[in-house]
Amino acid sequence: MLMPRQKTPNLTLLTLDHGSFDLSADGSERGTVICFYRGLHCPICATYLTELEKRVDDFAERGVKTIAVSSDGEERTRAMADKISATKLRFAYDLPLDVAREWGLYISTSRGKTSIGIEEPALFSEPGLFMVTPQQTLYYGSVQTMPFVRPHFSELVGALDFAIANEYPARGEYEGAV
């Protein structure tokens, strides 16, 4: 399990239009929001990523970079970026599923074609949303077993405003006996 205030797994992937992404060298002032999504086959992911695309500038104004990540290959990732008309959001592809597991993501098996007629990969990760500090420690994390009911980006932006103004630390860090 990932723990707040502790180092996250490394994440080094190719992106569609921004070369190689290396979390340890992302160079943001306050951190990076990593949105792991299921893939092109998921209509809910397309809607969710459209919302993130709209918030890229909001995060950037707060010193936070954004990236969307899936285990889809380059072609399917490009199709997703095109589908949501992405111009600002970085997209990384070919997430190894063993790395997805290191991040605590759940892995699902294919059920064939989805409601939008796109074949699911044989295996793929379920959604996760993380904010990682510039020191590569976990600040915020949310993982899901299903594609439904995801955290709202507008709420995360608002929470960042509060956290910045109040120097609010990452929470959930206690590992001792209970």
Strand order in space, largest sheet:
2-1-5-4-3-8-9
Structural class of the secondary elements? alpha+beta
The CATH superfamily is Glutaredoxin
Q: How many domain units?
A: 1
- Write down the secondary-structure element order: EEEHEHEHEEEEH
Total number of strands:
9
* Count of DSSP-assigned helices: 4
State the separation between the terminal residues, measured CA to CA.
Answer: 17 Å
Residue share in helix: 25-40%
Any guess at the CATH architecture? 3-Layer(aba) Sandwich
Sheet-strand content, in percent, reads 15-25%
Low-confidence stretches: none
CATH class: Alpha Beta
Q: What does the model show?
A:
By secondary structure, the chain is of the alpha+beta class. The protein has one domain (12-166): Glutaredoxin. The protein has helices at 43-61, 74-83, 97-102, 153-166; strands at residues 12-15, 20-22, 31-36, 64-69, 90-93, 107-109, 123-125, 128-132, 138-143. The strands form 2 sheets. It has a 7-stranded mixed sheet, with helices on one face. The longest helix is centred in the first third of the chain and has 19 residues, at 43-61. The protein is globular. The protein starts with 11 loop residues before the first strand and ends in a 12-residue tail after the last helix. The model has no long low-confidence stretch (mean pLDDT 97).
In short:
With 178 residues, this protein is α+β, with helices and mostly antiparallel strands. It has one domain (12-166): Glutaredoxin. The protein has helices at 43-61, 74-83, 97-102, 153-166, and strands at 12-15, 20-22, 31-36, 64-69, 90-93, 107-109, 123-125, 128-132, 138-143.
